[in-house]
Design brief:
346 residues; alpha/beta; five-stranded parallel β-sheet; 42% helix
């Protein structure tokens, strides 16, 4: 077998032909690897360049989309500049109204109001309302209705402090929001203690003076003293009842329209739209009346007195006949009638 191997006899070392080719093969593979590495480096550089271009294009598209969004918002805002037929004002030109008060306004529901936000501060004094308005952006509102001061009438010291805070509050609002219309609502009467009610009168006098001095709109609230027939206060004589809250809203609405007007029905001219339950009840009554007055006919009867061609009865026609085919008379052996009908042909 040695004689069959391709062995070189030159030199002292005996190598086969395949071993001689290994260095050249390694050199060729090294060249291929180096070329592949060069291609990978070039691809990385090209990838970085493309990534940079993509980021630049994305930034441009973001800027275009922002401009398009601003344009769309401007167009939608211009479309909203329409006259509300029920209110008679231009919606975009009227900013919302804010109603700030103590627990006397806790039962006011915003759903029945028109462009009005209610901010209730239970147990708050005038100083608390002033702090609340300092943190709020009053200039964004078209009008501010202020109903505060009930909790400052529990003692003489709190009353004097409240009067000072009330003056500072009005001055702050006037300086910060000169375009916001300010409405001062007098404090409602109290029936829990006589001394507290007397302090309410003193505070209301100061509120009237401040309103005249600062050129503010005044909302007068007379509840328990003038209206003895209506219970406008709860059992404890401090908070407003439902009727009292309703009258408070009416007093505010007389100076500033905050109650949403009721829509009229154009077809019938009704001032107040009917309740959905009333509409359903009327529909059921109409359906019942129609069903009762519907003319009744026997099954298959045409109303002309024609007889069934299969059995001779008048309460149906042959299509609804239970026999399904002409029957035979027992008397004359004829078809299409029965013996007791007297239709036999003699």
């Amino acid at each position: 077998m040695r004689d069959n191997l391709p062995i070189s006899t030159s030199g002292n070392t005996r190598q086969c032909r395949q071993c001689k080719d290994i260095p050249s093969m390694v050199k060729g593979l090294t060249t291929v690897v180096e070329s592949q590495q060069t291609e990978i480096r070039l691809l990385k550089e090209e990838n970085e360049t493309l990534t940079r271009l993509i980021l630049e294009q994305k930034n441009k598209l973001d800027g275009i989309s922002d401009n398009h969004e601003c344009t769309t918002m401007a167009q939608s805002a211009s479309k909203k500049d329409i006259v509300d037929e029920d209110v008679g004002i231009i919606k975009n030109n009227r900013r919302p109204t804010i109603l700030l008060g103590d627990s006397m306004v806790k039962d006011i529901n915003e759903r029945g109001l028109q462009d009005t936000k209610v901010k209730c501060l239970p147990g708050a004094k005038i100083s608390d309302a002033r702090q609340q308005l300092q943190d709020a952006k009053v200039e964004e509102f078209d009008a501010l209705i202020l109903h505060i001061g009930t909790n400052n009438c529990t003692s003489q010291e709190k009353l004097q402090e409240g009067i000072k805070d009330y003056k500072k509050l009005v001055a702050d609002v006037k300086s910060r929001a000169p375009n916001t219309e300010l409405f001062l609502s007098t404090v409602c009467n109290r029936e829990d203690k006589t001394q507290n009610n007397n302090r309410v009168d003193l505070l209301n006098k100061e509120i009237r003076v401040i309103a005249e001095k600062e050129n503010c709109e005044l909302i007068e609230n007379n509840n328990s003293r003038e209206d003895k027939d209506t219970t406008l206060l709860t059992g404890k004589g401090l908070h407003l009842s439902k009727s009292g809250t309703r009258k408070l809203l009416q007093n505010m609405n007389s100076k500033r329209q905050i109650i949403r007007p009721k829509k009229q029905i154009g077809n019938h001219g009704n001032e107040h739209p009917s309740h959905p339950s009333e509409n359903r009840r009327a529909t059921r009554e109409n359906q019942r009346h129609t069903r009762l007055n519907r003319p009744t006919h026997s099954r298959g009867s045409s109303g002309t007195g024609r007889r069934c061609h299969f059995c001779g009865e008048q309460n149906h026609v042959k299509n609804n006949c239970k026999h399904g085919k002409p029957i035979h008379c027992f008397s004359c052996n004829g078809t299409g009638h029965k013996a007791h009908m007297g239709l036999c042909k003699m």
